[in-house]
Amino acid sequence: EPEVTQTPSHQVTQMGQEVILRCVPISNHLYFYWYRQILGQKVEFLVSFYNNEISEKSEIFDDQFSVERPDGSNFTLKIRSTKLEDSAMYFCASRTSGSRDTQYFGPGTRLTVL
Amino acid sequence: SQQGEEDPQALSIQEGENATMNCSYKTSINNLQWYRQNSGRGLVHLILIRSNEREKHSGRLRVTLDTSKKSSSLLITASRAADTASYFCATYIIQGAQKLVFGQGTRLTINP
């Protein structure tokens, strides 16, 4: 069964460093998402991406964040200058073109900012 | 309270018993979905119920939706130790884009 994959599973970085989190969505999906979950808290929406552009972003998704689909398979989230409060689990999700259909989530990348 | 609030926050039962978790939301929705998350792991989609549906079954899972009360429940029958996880409801609101809004989750522990 196709699934969303994410790499790395765990990333440790120093405050102020740039990180790139990678995702490979399910191949025939057209909508892509990033969510994050700070330890012990709820899953929060960051950004949605469709047709090679951002369709919606949350207040969390400030100028330090960017997303890209550099090729036909990868979907990346970049944090330019990480802060301590960026430490969280970051989930990528994708879905087909059906309106408000199921989003399939990857296993997540645990980001630890020291 | 915010969109998608689960109740209870934590639930501990014996293996074989049924587990019921509730979710309330504030705005009108297109559909409501339940996800499971094992400790520190990813989110696994369990079931989706649309706003025009009242009940849905999938294996040992039963989901109900009451749009008049803006609430949903997830029932897991004949629980197993492997059902130990956090369970989240998530909604697509009618207005706005295609993002899911998650609740705080219910931490379910099944004791052998």
List keywords for this structure.
heterodimer; A: 114 residues; mainly beta; 7-stranded mixed beta sheet; 4-stranded antiparallel beta sheet; 0% helix; 50% strand; B: 112 residues; 6-stranded mixed beta sheet; 5-stranded antiparallel beta sheet
Would you give an account of this structure?
The complex is a heterodimer of chains A (114) and B (112). Chain A is globular and about 40 Å long. With 114 residues, chain A is mainly beta. Chain A starts with a strand and ends with a strand. In chain A, β4 and β5 form a beta hairpin. Chain A is 0% helix and 50% strand. Chain B is mainly beta and 112 residues long. In chain B, a hairpin with a 7-residue loop joins β9 and β10. Chain B is globular. The mean pLDDT of chain B is 89. The interface between A and B is medium-sized, with 27 and 25 residues.
Q: How is the quaternary structure best described?
A: heterodimer
Could you give the count of β-strands of chain A?
11
Shape of chain A: globular
Give the terminus-to-terminus CA distance of chain B.
34 Å
Structural class of chain B: mainly beta
Residue-averaged pLDDT of chain B: 89
- Low-confidence segments of chain B, ≥5 residues, pLDDT <50? none
Mean pLDDT of chain A: 92
- Termini separation of chain A comes to 37 Å
Care to count the β-strands of chain B?
11
Work out the largest interface and the residue count of each chain: A-B, 27 and 25 residues
Structural Rg of chain A: 13 Å
Let me know the largest β-sheet of chain B: 6 strands, mixed
Order of helices and strands of chain A: EEEEEEEEEEE
Order of helices and strands of chain B: EEEEEEEEEEE
